[in-house]
Structures are given as C-alpha cells and as structure tokens.
User: What shape does this take?
Amino acid sequence: MTNTRLTIAKPDIIKLFDDLPIKVLKKPDLEKILFENRRFWRITKSTTTEKFIDFLLSKTKLKKVKLEFPYRALISYTWGDASIYELSMSAKRDSYFTHYTAMYIHELTEQIPNTIYVNYEQRRKGHNETRLIQDNIDKAFQRQARVSKNIAFYKDKRICLLNGMHTGKLGVEEIEGFEGERIHVTNVERTLIDITVRPMYSGGIFEVLKAYRLAKENVSINKLVSFLKKLNYVYPYHQAVGFYLERAGVYRDSLVALLLNIDMKYDFYLDHQMKEMTYSKKWRLFFPKGL
Assistant: This one.
C-alpha cells in the first residue's frame, strides 16, 4: 500500500524536486519535504522518512553521496548530478569557499586546483589580549604550519574542510557558480588576506604573488585594509600584505603606503620553514630568495 501511494504521487513528487532551487539535500530536508506534503500526496503516516528516501533512491533520480572524512562520514542526497561546489558546500552548514578555491572562482590563478577548500567558522570566543614576543614569532615560523587533515575524496577531487576563526563571514558573498548554482565564497579582498595568512592552502607563495597581480582590476585596497583591521590578527600580517602589493608591481605607491602607515613593531615571515631567506627592512619581513 505504501509503495502504491508513493507511486501514484510520483509525478507530483518529481515536479517538486525538479522545482527546488538546490540540488543537494540532507536527511532533515527530505524529512521536512515529506512532512509538508504528506497530506497533498495522500501518503500514510506509516511511510517513514527512511521509506520515503528508499523510494526516491530506487524510483527517481535522487542519489546518495557519502563523503568519508577522517572523523565522520557525511551523507548528502543529490537530485540528479550536483556540481562539486554545491556538494562541497553542503558538507557543513554556513560554510563558504576560500583560499585556492576562491582564487580559482575569482580567476586569480591560472591553475585548476585539485583540492576544494571549504571553510566553516569557529564559534565566537572571548577577547584574548595576546602580547607578541619576537622570540615566539621566530620559533613559530621556524616550525611547520599546521595543515588540516579533514579531507574527503570525491571523484577526482579532494574536499578539505577548514575550521577558521570567527569573522561573522566577513567579505563572504553569494554568487552564481560555474553551473548556475548559488555558492558562497570570500570576495577578492578577503581572499587576498586569507591566502597571505595560509599560503599552504593557496598553491604556495609564488601563486599568492601571482594572485595579487591578477587581482589589480577587481580589488579595493581601501576595503582590504579595512578588512585587515576588522580581522585584528595577532600576527602582523599587514606587513606580508603590503610586501605582496609592492612586489606585485602593479599598484600605485599611494595604495601600498596604506599598509606602510600601520605600525611595524616586529620582524615577520612570509611563510613557515623558509630555507633560504632574505630580509626587507622596509616591511620588516623575511621572504624566500628569488621571489
């Protein structure tokens, strides 16, 4: 009887799913759809969410996708074939694309990255007044940077989940993706900051420098500086941002000076564990020879 009711309602069920604005759903989404349409479809109460999902998987184009992250597997359901971006963003609620993925979306790289970087923010923490000490900065950047191992594989791509600091989604925008899907991604200004802070998620410092050059026509340096102040990093990343802007060779001196006008109290580093380094007195910054 249950299958008969679902079979009779199948054309209406398919129409509803075809009209949905998204292609990737979670079990609670399917549960809500069944609850809201049960009476209209004349589906009996004995039809559980599990039975409804089993019917959809066997009789419609609904597909089950399992992303095997190290700490837990995440189950999603796609109506037909969803894009890798829509699927990746569904891994965590309120997540958004960042770093190398944001570079690719904004055409700030000529590469096609194999890893999709998805950021979901930590909860807001109490204000922590950290006092920097030069010796501690030196030791921190002599060590290898911590890299997320929260990675799942899907087809020929890796999906890496980053648990970034709380920013209130500063500089995150909703845009249309490559396949017409709605996605959330850091804007150009926030992307340049993020890749400066974490070059290991951005193709390395040479790719970061190239991104600064490619961003020239689409970036507001005033907005970038405003974002830096709002993010209020403990480390003086403004020195690295200013260095990249100057080294890119495409920005006016007056714009670069906006970063020079911020206090520089410490020597800083462009990346972790650099082997052959040289030093910029202007930016109080160590960077690799040959950059």
Q: What stands out?
A: The domain at 84-288 is CATH 3.30.460 (Beta Polymerase; domain 2). The chain has two domains: 2-64, 84-288. The chain is about 40% helix and 20% strand.
